[in-house]
Design goal:
The protein is α+β, with helices and mostly antiparallel strands. It has a domain at about 5-75: Orthogonal Bundle (Arc Repressor Mutant, subunit A). Helix content is about 45%, strand content about 25%. Strand 1 and strand 2 form a beta hairpin. The longest helix has 22 residues, at about 20-40.
Length: about 240
């Protein structure tokens, strides 16, 4: 089964509009700031910073915005202090929901997250209540027009990838262990292969199929979480039929 979710595909398509793009920039600034705070401002020595800088450049973020975010994180200039916080719970039909946030106001963020769980008849759980239902993985998506399957397979596996998934008609999906993410990223970069997505993500161990109104409600719930300014990523283990 393909690791990347249909929800993730929908989010990427939404990213084309201006309002979604504005949130992408806000999230990237927070990610850069936190990465620089935790690992320093030198991307050659900070893997997390390297990944988010690649995402920022892929989204055409202005150079000044990137540099200022790094300086805020590394303490060169004063700025808002952000913290990573995660929230876990359940949505329609008991599907698992895992929410990653970066916030300068924990009380505000938890209130907004709890409100969405309640609004869509879900429930906010305790730490660890659904985390075990997801695997932390490195994930790359590469357009099939860029490279042939055999060449991509050889490059990825030699670099340390766990799996190359070819079932999507337009993109290859490459999965890695978190520890091998940097090596695979470097292999693609050295080969000058453009990556549509390169990130550390959470993939469900198993999925729950929802249909009809329940699937619609679950999608609306994920969309509502994604609309919260402090939310960076939302993961769920539910699946649905796009043709319904």
């Amino acid at each position: 089964m393909s690791g990347h979710s249909k929800w993730a595909t929908i989010k990427r398509k939404k990213g084309a509009n201006d309002s979604a793009r504005g949130k992408i920039f806000s999230n990237l600034i927070r990610e850069i700031t936190i990465a620089a705070k935790e690992g320093g401002g030198d991307p050659t020595l900070n893997a997390r910073l390297r990944v988010v800088l690649d995402k920022a450049r892929a989204n055409n973020m202005p150079k000044d915005n990137i540099e200022n975010a790094i300086k805020r994180g590394s303490g060169e200039i004063e700025g808002i202090v952000y913290e990573d916080r995660t929230y876990e719970g359940y949505g329609p039909s008991g599907v698992a929901i895992f929410v990653e946030t970066q916030t300068d106001n924990i009380n505000r963020t938890v209130a907004e997250v709890r409100h969405i769980f309640t609004k869509y008849e879900g429930s906010l759980g305790t730490t660890g209540s659904v985390a075990f239902m997801f695997q932390r993985k490195g994930q790359f998506l590469i357009n099939k027009e860029v490279i042939g399957e055999d060449a991509l397979m050889e490059l990825a596996i030699n670099a340390g990838a766990e799996d190359v998934i070819t079932e999507d008609p337009e993109t290859y999906e490459i999965l890695t262990a978190p520890a091998d993410f940097d090596a695979v990223f470097a292999a693609f970069a050295d080969a000058k292969i453009p990556m549509e997505t390169s990130e550390l993500t959470r993939l469900p161990v198993t999925t729950v199929k929802l249909t009809g109104k329940e699937a619609e409600r679950a999608l609306k719930m994920l969309d509502a979480f994604d609309a919260i300014d402090d939310v960076v990523n939302v993961y769920s283990n539910f699946d649905f039929d796009e043709d319904e």
